[in-house]
Amino acid sequence: MVVSIGSVLPLRVEDLPQDEGGPRMELVDGSLHVTPLGDLRHQRLVALLAHRLTDLAPLEWVVLPGANLLRRAATDRLLIPDVVVVAEEAVAEGGVYADPSDVLLVVEVESPSTRSVDRLLKRELYAQWKVPHYWVVDPEARTLTRLELGPGRRYAEGSGDTGWLASFDGSALWSA
Length: 176
Fold this sequence. Notes:
Elements: E1 24-28, E2 31-35, H1 40-56, E3 61-64, E4 68-69, E5 83-87, H2 88-93, E6 97-98, E7 103-109, H3 115-128, E8 133-138, E9 143-150, E10 154-157
Parallel strand pairs: 4-6, 7-8
Antiparallel strand pairs: 1-2, 3-5, 5-7, 8-9, 9-10
């Protein structure tokens, strides 16, 4: 796929190609971040996470393997987490983008090329968007880090397992 972006920085969502397959194109403050899909093991972990969370989720929550997150009335930040838990009402409305205010949980499955982005940049951006729960899966270390948003828009380590999310068995990820 050839993409020609006819704009200078800062880019906006409108500058990106629509309905295209291929690599993930995310925007952070108008800068384009392009990431290919993870390897097959990465994709299997994403599918497994989405499936297991779907089995646990109450009817008012929908689990999606990847979704476009974009704040309403903003065009300079577009993120695409590996797994997203979003309010059923928002999904029923349709559209291409989910507003972060409708999101309960985002999950990123790390790969060597995304580790620092997932642990630092995306963690900060999801906190700014007030996403209540952020989980990071490290396939190499075989760990699931659950984070919960606390005071001052900071994620607390070792939290993120309240409500129905607490029944998710992270160790099951490594038995597949």
